[in-house]
């Protein structure tokens, strides 16, 4: 009775706390900037907090952003050897004819290292070299495309499909902003990928003595352009008429790290909107947002009722780790809402300190901005006596025993009925008296 009373009080109190705080939002309105991109996202690489989003699950054409997947398969391949040589062949030169793809102008028979090949794919986005990479690491273009789709499935890219390794416009080559983030984040785990996509220039020398200086297509990291942004690095550009201007980039400043993904930016001869808008989104984030510790792990968040313990009726719950997120500089932290989500209404002893017993969901501006595991603050011993009592209770209230009870009741009713029926047949018969006649002998 005591446990039940405290449980009701606790639930009511926690619900009251949640209702007091208004729920707010976590993807914010970009002020002072018109974004032409048809789809895009600015996300923190530290907390995965989305500051800006637009159509992140909508189908888009990736153009040369496709080459991120090509590079991933190169780097994950057993054949990857930065110093191993690959030879330019006629097939990779012929396949790009008439496609409009940028080409390296390398000649048939020239050899370059696999590392040089990676630079030609990512830095200068050469179509012929990308087809060479597909053939080298996939055995054939067709098999390499299959590998690309298999990898997309493995990474959980549910809105992505490839029909070529270079990003030529085809209806069956498409992706989403959200999938591109997952892919780019995966690619950035490779040091070679980070190094190549952060370079603005790179010199290659083939076995025929040809020396060529490659230049990045990403003007954010090129000091020789008007779009250079000192805090930017990587990742990949893309363009077709159907896709528009596309850019995946990252930027870091003062301990803050972001990724910006824009698809379908306006294509203009006088202005590169993909670079301009990415740069402005980074400035907006760096100037208007900062880390906030929403909750620490030193104070209990709430309690949960405990069963099978003689020592206590409740165990305190703590955040497993401090929860830090990115919020507007002027955000009122008192408007944050913490909602508990227990695995069950009560928990059975024994409990070990640190056991995960639920989760706390953190809300700001009507959107969940994160979640943290709730863990037990102390050990709770199990009472064997209470465990045995529960076992007896469960046994006698189980579905099996309910069937037994029903059978017994039916048997008793049948027995009563039979007894009644048999006793009714054994009642004494009434004998009619006939007077004796003396003359009757």
Task: Please give a structural write-up.
With 441 residues, the protein is α+β, with helices and mostly antiparallel strands. Among the domains are: 39-265, Beta-lactamase (3-Layer(aba) Sandwich), CATH 3.40.710; 384-425. Helix content is 32%, strand content 24%. The protein has eleven helices and 17 strands. The protein has helices spanning 2-20, 67-76, 90-94, 114-122, 127-138, 141-154, 177-187, 191-197, 273-288, 384-396, 399-425, and strands at 39-44, 50-54, 85-87, 111-113, 201-205, 211-215, 232-240, 244-253, 256-265, 289-295, 302-307, 314-319, 323-328, 337-342, 347-348, 356-364, 367-376. The strands form five sheets. The protein has a six-stranded mixed sheet with strand order 14-16-17-12-11-15, with helices on one face. It has a five-stranded antiparallel sheet with strand order 2-1-9-8-7, with helices on both faces. It has a two-stranded antiparallel sheet with strand order 3-4. A hairpin with a 5-residue loop joins strand 5 (201-205) and strand 6 (211-215).
* The CATH class of the domain at 39-265: Alpha Beta
Label the overall shape: elongated
Radius of gyration computed on alpha carbons: 37 Å
Task: Give the name of the CATH superfamily of the domain at 39-265.
Answer: DD-peptidase/beta-lactamase superfamily
Structural class by secondary-structure content = alpha+beta
| DSSP summary, beta strand count | 17
Distance between the termini: 89 Å
Query: From the coordinates shown, what is the CATH architecture of the domain at 39-265?
Result: 3-Layer(aba) Sandwich
Query: How many H/I helical runs?
Result: 11
Strand content: 15-25%
